[in-house]
Amino acid sequence: MALDPKTIETAGDELFEAWGANATLAPLRDRYDGIDIVDAYRIQERFIARRLEQGARIVGKKIGVTSKAVQEMIGVFEPDFGQLTADMQFEDGSTLDLDQLIQPKAEAEIAFVLKEDLNGPGITPVDVLRATDHVRACFEIVDSRIDDWDIRIQDTVADNASCGVYVLGEDRIDPRDVDLTLAGLLVEKNGEPCATGVGAAVQGSPVNAVVWLANTLGKLGMPFKAGEVILSGSLAPLIPVADGDELVAHIGGIGSCTARFAKLGGAQAGAASTKESANA
Amino acid sequence: MLDAATLDTIATQVAEAQAAPHTMPKLTDDFPGLDVEGGYDVQDRLLARWSADGRELIGYKAGLTSKAKMEQMGVTEPSFGILMRDFVDCEGSVIPTGGMIHPRVEAEIAFLMKDELAGPDVTIEEILDATEFVQPAIEILDSRFEKFKFDLASVIADNGSAARFVLGGRPRRPRDLDLRTIGLVLERNGEIAALASSGAVLGHPAEAIRMMVSWLHSRGRTLPAGSVVLTGGATEAIPVEAGDAVFARFQDMGEISVRFA
């Protein structure tokens, strides 16, 4: 049973406030009887709308639930998506403020940057490759506004697909110069190997994840524009992070991305700035 | 420490379990004094026995090279084993499973050495200098222990579960690749069975060779020019049976296809 518009608004506002206060909520699925995935996307829309009111700007999308292991864990056999805003983006080598995140974990991914609009449905892999300006190594720092990451698909979708912030690697590679399916990943944490993976872990190929996104957005009538960044899904299992950690992702044929983590007390620009205005 | 006669007895038991494939209880059940060094002493006896039969040593393998497997076995360095020329099957071939007990496959990177490596502490750079080429490999493992129940000393005495291996795909110069990040996809009957990158082996597969040369040195040996080295499974081992088709894809190194009958 679909939730009524008032309830959708309430749930979206709750998530927005939790995000601004670095707080967590009890799972929505236990509190909003009958909540389904469609409701969850409407709650996400409300959550993002509140951030846009505060001056945030949409710059792309993230794709989640792309690996077989995660799909089996939550019993949903397709990906989900969330919105990226400009204040979530950090440069290669940035130090991320753990005081602005709640329960962060890192995912090493391949980011796509579009040079043409992708208007689904009907998009195929060849359309995605043609519309891709370049790919880059990246870290998505996922975070959950739900208590202890106790999520099912409705909770994570409503919570903007558990997106926190992201770091884009500096190297930009033309998709014609790399085999995205076989691009191998090694993540080093504080200089020691800590995770490995490969492009095929994401829906068989990261390109397939972007195809899914383009067609899903098309069906929903949502824009997918030139210039947008797409985080295509994690190549390896989630990596826990703590104060003082340095993570480096090396992706074969693409390049590397470095993210550092420290407790900066919320004084950082970027993600912090919109959070402060949200709290004001 | 086991005496020479006991090590001979163990070597005979292992050689027979491998030749007319049958399982045995883990060796430390019957020979509680068997330790890692004793396991390698058994390997030496296997090599002597096989050489006397006219079989030829062509290289070495590293096993337990991934962090997950090391943690599982409670060890901090890989295990090593010997590779005989008659272990080799060709790319595209049909491999009979009749000669094996419970075969499993792993995808990994093989090194072909052009120069000898010796000493307690060779560097990664020296290893790359001494390498003729690297190539994709599928290793077929077959533990001779009942229900895969074994400990480190037993698996070493069983020559690191070595059975067969296949080299194929594209030979590459090691410095033309980033050997930390070669993506690997292992498919069984058209479905993805395992995913990894080459860095799953100690961060860089040459690291397994560094440890191997040091191990050889500790036993008074070297890694000879011309050796084939299997650096250890980057993926987990996947069970196979007669009728299965296995296909391994390696980033920028091609692929290997084999079938089992």
Which terms would index this structure?
heterodimer; A: eight-stranded mixed β-sheet; 8 helices; globular; B: 261 residues; alpha+beta; Fumarylacetoacetate hydrolase, domain 2; five-stranded mixed β-sheet; 7 helices
Task: Describe the 3D structure.
The complex is a heterodimer of chains A (280) and B (261). With 280 residues, chain A is an alpha+beta fold. Chain A has a single domain, classed as Fumarylacetoacetase-like, C-terminal domain (Fumarylacetoacetate hydrolase, domain 2, Alpha-Beta Complex), CATH 3.90.850.10. Chain A has helices spanning 5-21, 28-31, 37-53, 68-74, 125-131, 153-158, 206-220, 271-279, and strands spanning 58-64, 80-85, 89-91, 95-97, 105-114, 132-142, 163-168, 184-189, 192-198, 229-234, 239-240, 246-251, 255-262. In chain A, the strands form two sheets. In chain A, strands 1, 2, 3, 5, 6, 7, 10 and 11 form an eight-stranded mixed β-sheet that branches. Chain A has a five-stranded mixed β-sheet with strand order 4-13-12-8-9, with no helix packed on it. In chain A, strand 12 and strand 13 (255-262) form a beta hairpin. The radius of gyration of chain A is 18 Å and the shape is globular. The model of chain A has no long low-confidence stretch (mean pLDDT 94). Chain B has 261 residues and is an alpha+beta fold. Chain B has one domain (4-260): Fumarylacetoacetase-like, C-terminal domain (Fumarylacetoacetate hydrolase, domain 2). In chain B, strands 1, 2, 3, 5, 6, 7, 10 and 11 form an eight-stranded mixed β-sheet that branches. In chain B, helix 1 (4-19) crosses helix 3. The longest helix of chain B has 17 residues, at 36-52. Chain B is globular. Chain B starts with a helix and ends with a strand. The mean pLDDT of chain B is 95. The interface between A and B is medium-sized, with 22 and 22 residues.
